[in-house]
Request: fold
Amino acid sequence: MIRLASLTAIMAVVASTTLSALEIEPQSGGLVLGNDNAKDSSFNWHGGLANKQMDQGWARSQDAVFQTGGTARYWGFGATLNVALALGQDKTAAYVYDTDPTVYASRPIQFGEAIQLNAKADYLFQIDGVYGEGIPFLQIIPHVEMVTYPNQPANTLKDDQVWAGADLWLSAPFEELAGLDFGGSIDYNISDPALRSSIGFRELKQYAPYELLMWQYINLGNRSYHGYFTNTENTGLTTSQIGAKIRMPLAWNEWWGYASADWSYWLQRTDRDYRYLMGQDAGELAFAVGVEWRRQ
Reply:
């Protein structure tokens, strides 16, 4: 099992096939207290194929997509950009529904279109040394993130998702649980009174030369957030989320291959009923394969 100290050496990039409020990958290159040898920068890029494009429990495209993007960080300040491009045509993506006074509309997806774009600015603050020299104890990551769907017509969901909030990760204090982190996040949409949050665990293990990352989340949202994605007046639980990602080094220095899978499920019945009306399932399984470059 990997030591907690190894987490600071991992130059990670958001390469999950589905997005939630809480960051999945361990982050590095931040302001670190308790470790004078911590790296002050990191840069990562990924590119891969996924069977569908997921966003916060909603399938933006049920056909294949190309996902690419990366994260650059220096002295704690980070910038992330991720884009999903359609590799097929998804006619089921078209819908119209009226939530007076707003009408939401979506059109079919064509090959080559940009389905989704996420841009995020954040700051990583980390405390080491509580469990031992160089071992991460606490990470706090305040951030602002914009989510949009470039190929779709103008509507509230496309134009008004600007989330401001923070992630918090706490490492397990026992050597027997090395690699286990507990985390939580909260985000407020500064363009609209929607609130979302997540709480859960992630586990990082190493079986040389492979790395295995797993996660288990529960996601929540207020009434406005549910209205965004399921047009209901629910509050509280949205989706559960379970996933895993495995990496292996490639022949070229600093290059890795990966495969990942993520399953999300809407927990409230009325949310599930609305998804059925929109032609979507209550649960979605997304998987991806690709490559990463992580600067050492």
Q: What stands out?
A: Residues 1-18 have pLDDT under 50 and may be disordered. The chain is about 5% helix and 55% strand. Helices lie at 156-159, 223-230, 269-277. The CA atoms of residues 212 and 246 lie 5 Å apart.
